[in-house]
Structure formats: C-alpha cells, structure tokens
Amino acid sequence: MSTLKQYQAAAEHAAKKMGLEEPIAVRWMDILCSAHSKLTLAHCHVDNGKMPRGTICVRRRTTWPNGIYDLMTHEVAHLVARTHGSKRMLAAIAKANPKGGEAKMARRIGAVPHRHRWAPHRLENINSSGVHIQESCDACGSTRIATYVRA
After folding, report:
1. 3-state helix vs strand vs coil in the chain, percent to 5
2. Which DSSP category does 61 fall into?
3. CA–CA separation, 83 and 47 (whole Å)
4. CATH 3.30.2010.10 assigned to 4-108
5. So where are the chain's domains?
6. In what order do the strands lie in the sheet with 143-148?
C-alpha cells in the first residue's frame, strides 16, 4: 500500500514538471471531504474553501491501475484546468507524464503537437491497384489506410 509520503512526492514532482509553483498538500480523505462522491478515489481542491487551494485528498487504500504518479498528475492538472478532457488539462498532464494514457489522448485531440509514427496494424485489402494496409500512430492512436502501389 502506498504511503502519504509517496503520494506527496508524486504530486510535487508532477507540479514541478507542469511549472506550478504553488504549494501542494496531500492528505487522506475524511469527513471534511464528505461532499465528494463515495466513488471518488481522489480529488483536488481548486478554490480556497474547507481546504486550501492545492490540497489533494486521497481515499485510504486506493489502488490506481496506472500507478500513483498517474493519479497525482491528473489531480495536480486540475490546478491548471478544472474540466476533464479539456485541451489545457490534457496538455498539462502530457507535460508532466508524456507516456501516460491521458497524454496519448492529449496528442489525439491536438492539445500536444507531435509527429505521427505510423506502424502497420492490419492488412485491409489486396487488389489490382496495390496493397491496402491499416496503419496506426504509436503516439496518439490515429489510424489511416495506406496504399502501396504495385510496380
């Protein structure tokens, strides 16, 4: 099980990569955070209210499939942009964690520029005009049909 110090270190590292200089505090979720859904694994306070801005509350015994760094990167990114899936939020996530799943989404929607790295995916068709292969980009997951003309 991860300790609060590990969550704190991951959050501070993500904030540094995003260029945020405001303090980040990670704490266990308790009764003060009861307004949040019981299904929420973690959340970030983006306004000063019950908790100061930059406080990230994590549910005890949280297991995150992609690791605590992905979770903390996501929560810290809320200090850049509140809206899930917004270009600003995804760009901040990609800046801090370029190999994470949300970074791939950022490249797909154009929040982070990249060069496509096309790789063959599957054979589509062979006919008199050539070979048609579906290719996908390793960086963003976009697909295209490439035609290789017979000589």
Report:
1. 30, 25, 45
2. T
3. 14
4. yes
5. 4-108, 118-148
6. 118-127, 130-137, 143-148
Q: How far apart are the first and last CA of the chain?
A: 60
Residue at 80: amino acid letter:
V
Q: Which two tokens stand for residue 109?
A: 């929607």
Residue 107 CA, chain-centre distance (Å), reads: 11
Tens of pLDDT along the chain (151 residues)?
578 899 999 999 999 999 999 899 999 887 666 556 666 788 888 888 777 889 998 888 767 767 888 889 999 999 999 888 788 888 888 888 887 777 777 777 777 777 788 888 777 778 877 888 888 887 777 888 888 886 6
For the CA atoms of 13, 18, 20, 23, what is the dihedral angle to 10 degrees? -30
**Tokens 């499939």 belong to which residue?**
65
Residue 12: both structure tokens together:
């501070």
